Amino acid sequence: MYPAELVKPMREDLTSVGFIELTTSKDVTTHVSKNNTAVLIVNSVCGCAAANARPGIKQSLNNDKKPEQLLTVFAGVDKEATDSARNLMIPFPPSSPCIALFKNGELVHMLERHHIEGRSSEIISENLKQAYNQHC
To answer: Catalytic amino acids?
Structure first.
């Protein structure tokens, strides 16, 4: 587990733009409901989360269509919530960071770490915008 003071700015990078932090399994099941669209990012301390994933997902919100729920769990900190979120992402293996789009409780789009690492935030943003336009 990472110390709270270490991850605070990484959490705030997302919560400051409207992401809801999920810390329990119940939070995950409550917010990834059957009656909405939700994007969920598994946040991480790694460089590709800082340089690619968080900027990319924030840029993706500059779009006419976007998910109703903006959600985040933090790998290595919110173990229960992260495990619950990853269970909703099966058949994809656990990775951090990763970004999932849900519609009516069903996983409809997934960006795994290998889709994020080494790609610009602009590419990630455009990928998410295309998914929003199709599913939101």
So the answer is: 46, 48
